[in-house]
Amino acid sequence: MLKIAVLISGSGSNLQSIIDAVNSKELQCEISFVISDKNNAFGIERAEKNGIKTYIFDKKEYKEKLSDTILSVIENKVDFIVLAGFLSILRGDILKKFEGRIINIHPSLIPSFCGNGMYGIKVHEAAIESGVKVSGCTVHFVDEGTDSGPIILQRTVPVYYEDTAEMLQKRVLIEEHIALPTALKLISEHKVELNNNKVKILK
Ligand code: GAR
C-alpha cells in the first residue's frame, strides 16, 4: 500500500479530505506522518484524532534546517510526500531523494497566479484583480522551482463579477478537496505517467 507523509501549515482541510478518502476506503493508502512547519496548526489536531503520527518543526525555529529535518524523519519510511497547504519551500536533498514523488496542491490554475509569494488568499485576490472568469486548483509534481512542476490534474470554478477573494477561496477549496484525493488515488493505482515533464493519465 502507498505510504505517504502529508505536510501542512494550517487548517488542514486538504489533509482532512485525504483522511476521509482513506477512512471510506475510496483511497488505498496509509498516512504515515503529518508534519507541520507551524506551531498550532489545526491540521495536527485532525491527524491526532485519527491516530496519525505527527511532528511539528516550526519554520521560525528550524529555518534552513527544515527540509533536512523532515527528510530525516520520513526517509525510507514513505513512498510519497503530499504538500497540503504547506507554505515552506522544500530544498536540498529531500527534492533529490523524493524526485517525482512529491505533489502539491495550489489554489489556482497553474501557470496563472502562482510562484513566489503566491499562497492562500493572495492567490484569490490576484485572480479577482485580474478579472479572470475561471479559476480553480492544480495538483502538480514538485520540482526545484515554485509551482513549476508537471501538472497532474486541475479542476475549475467560475469567477463571478461580484466575488470577493474569500468567496472565490471557498469555491476553489471545495474542488481542492476532490482534486487531491483523486490525484492520490491515480498515483496509488499507478495511473500517473511522467513523460518529458508532461503527465499522462492512464485509463
Ligand atoms: C489551500 O487552499 C491550498 O491550496 C493552499 O493553502 C490552503 C491550505 O488550506 N496552498 C497554497 O497556497 C500553496 N501555494 P488547508 O490547510 O485547509 O488545506
UniProtKB/TrEMBL annotation:
(6R)-10-formyltetrahydrofolate binds at residues 63, 104. Transmembrane segments: none annotated. Pathway: Purine metabolism; IMP biosynthesis via de novo pathway; N(2)-formyl-N(1)-(5-phospho-D-ribosyl)glycinamide from N(1)-(5-phospho-D-ribosyl)glycinamide (10-formyl THF route): step 1/1. It catalyses: N(1)-(5-phospho-beta-D-ribosyl)glycinamide + (6R)-10-formyltetrahydrofolate = N(2)-formyl-N(1)-(5-phospho-beta-D-ribosyl)glycinamide + (6S)-5,6,7,8-tetrahydrofolate + H(+). GO terms for biological process: 'de novo' IMP biosynthetic process. Pfam families: Formyl_trans_N. Catalyzes the transfer of a formyl group from 10-formyltetrahydrofolate to 5-phospho-ribosyl-glycinamide (GAR), producing 5-phospho-ribosyl-N-formylglycinamide (FGAR) and tetrahydrofolate. This is Phosphoribosylglycinamide formyltransferase. The gene is purN.
